[in-house]
Every structure is written in C-alpha cells, then in structure tokens.
Amino acid sequence: MINVKGLKKSFGKNEVLTGIDVEIAKGEVVVVIGPSGSGKSTFLRCLNLLEQPTAGEIYFEDELITQRKYDIDNARKKMGMVFQHFNLFPHKTILQNLTLAPIKVKKTNPAEAEKIAMDLLHTVGLEDKRDTYPNQLSGGQKQRIAIARALAMQPHVMLFDEPTSALDPEMVGEVLEVMQKLAHEGMTMVIVTHEMGFAREVGDRIIFMDGGQIVEQGPPEQVFGAPTHPRTQDFLSKVL
Ligand code: ADP
Ligand code: MG
After folding, report:
1. 3-state class of 193 per DSSP?
2. Domain range spanning residue 25?
3. Keywords of this protein's UniProt record, alphabetized (predicted)?
4. Cα-Cα-Cα-Cα dihedral of 108, 126, 119, 111, to 10°?
C-alpha cells in the first residue's frame, strides 16, 4: 500500500530523516517507536505530504505521490491523520465535525454523510454526543471524535502521531480501545506511540527509529523480546 524509498528530509542544514526505506502492506499495523527528536513525526508527516521530502520516493497504492505533478489532496483524502492535539472545530457540533469534510471535500451528499457519521459515532461509543460541542467533551472523548472524524473520509490508511500523549492517564485506555477495534477490522495503520504494551499487543510490526533512520524492525516479540541493536536495547531499557 505504501512504499518508501530513500526518504530524506532536512530543515535547513538539519537532516532529520537520513534515508528511510520501508514498505507497508494493506491491513498491516505498524508501530513506530523511538526517542524524542528521532524523526517519527517528520516521517509520518512526509507520508501524507504534510512535509515535502527533500529526497526519495513515496508510492501510495502504486502511485508516485512525491512527483511534482501529483495532486496532494488526493493522497490526503485517502490518508486519515490523528494528532496528539485533537484540533476539532470548536464552533461546530460533533456531528458537523464529522460531516464537514466529507460534504465539502468529497462531495458526499449530506444525508449519506450523516449516516456515515452516526455509524462512526456508534463505533467510538459517542452517539449521544452528536449535538454537543467539543468543549463539552473530555480529552478522551475528543480524541475518539478526532479518530471518527478522520474515518469519516473513509481513508485507506490511518496515521496516528502520539494520539494518547496529551491525555490524562485514565483516558488513555478508551482511545487505545478504539484503535484496537480499527486494527481488528483490518485498517492499515501507522502509529507513533509511547504505549509499549499497546504496541506489543496490536502491532504487526515494530519499527524502532533513532537519529532519523530505522535502526531495527520486526515483529513485536522480536523487537521487544530480543532486540539486536544496542540503541534499541538502550531505549527499551529506559521505557519498559
Ligand atoms: P519525533 O517525533 O521523533 O520527536 P520530530 O520528527 O518531531 O521527532 O523531529 C525531529 C527533528 O526535526 C527535531 O530535531 C526537530 O527539532 C526537527 N524538526 C521537526 N519539524 C521541524 C520544522 N518544521 N522545522 C525545523 N525543524 C523541525
Ligand atoms: Mg513527534
């Protein structure tokens, strides 16, 4: 589904991604871990072209999306992204938060958009919040709505950048539960997280990044159970 070749990204003289090669298959759940500043967010943001790569190629569903003439909006429509901070539209109801982009960007008819939105509110367990506003929700509820809003565009892949890092501890579980449900339904997901228990349980593959590159990757049992690279061992000894 996604094929990344020789991806590099610099900000000025600072080379933040120093050459990333990775393939992500349809239905795969890939969890990216690594120390702060290792380039995890930049990597995710390059995948959906929120950042323009400095070098390298990204294929998405067999299309070269890093070519100059490619319509970036086309990739963004098919890649949902959830951030640490939820960025819901404060002056729109929860239902409107979920229907706005499908109606405006995808030209979905409003009745159909509402039907999809209500199904998603059911999935995240917040049907009763349809007519309330974001500031009436807890952090965990806001993040569940942010996930539902991304899903409302019916993306082919979901990118998560530390979706639980800004939450109070008691709200982390409800968000991870929604993500786990998505994973079980076969959604292709790339997740940056510090929740190692979740990574181990839900990830098909763990990627450990350090210094702007992939240092080690493999199934969770391997990366967590028997990491081979000293930098992975060092990182895991600090977080586990
Ligand atoms: P991580 O998500 O692993 O913590 P980031 O991808 O956010 O790492 O950042 C990696 C490096 O890139 C950091 O040194 C950060 O300061 C730098 N960086 C990220 N975004 C920008 C930007 N927009 N402009 C300049 N430097 C940036
Ligand atoms: Mg980050």
Report:
1. coil
2. 2-237
3. Amino-acid transport, ATP-binding, Cell membrane, Membrane, Nucleotide-binding, Transport
4. -40
| Residue 48 belongs to domain with CATH number | 3.40.50.300
To the nearest 10 degrees (0 to 180), the angle between helices 139-151 and 94-104 is 20
Q: Rounded to an integer, what distance in angstroms lies between the CA atom of residue 164 and that of residue 122?
A: 21
Question: Among the atoms of ligand 1, which is closest to the Cα of residue 39?
Answer: 6
Model ipTM value: 0.98
Burial (CB count <10 Å: 0-12, 13-18, 19+), residue 70: middle
Question: Ligand 1: which of 38, 41, 45 to mutate, most ligand atoms within 8 Å of CB?
Answer: 41
pTM reported for the whole predicted model? 0.97
Name the domain count of the chain: 1
- Cα three-residue angle 211-176-133, rounded to 5 degrees: 110
Q: What angle do CA 51, 55, 57 make, to 5 degrees?
A: 85
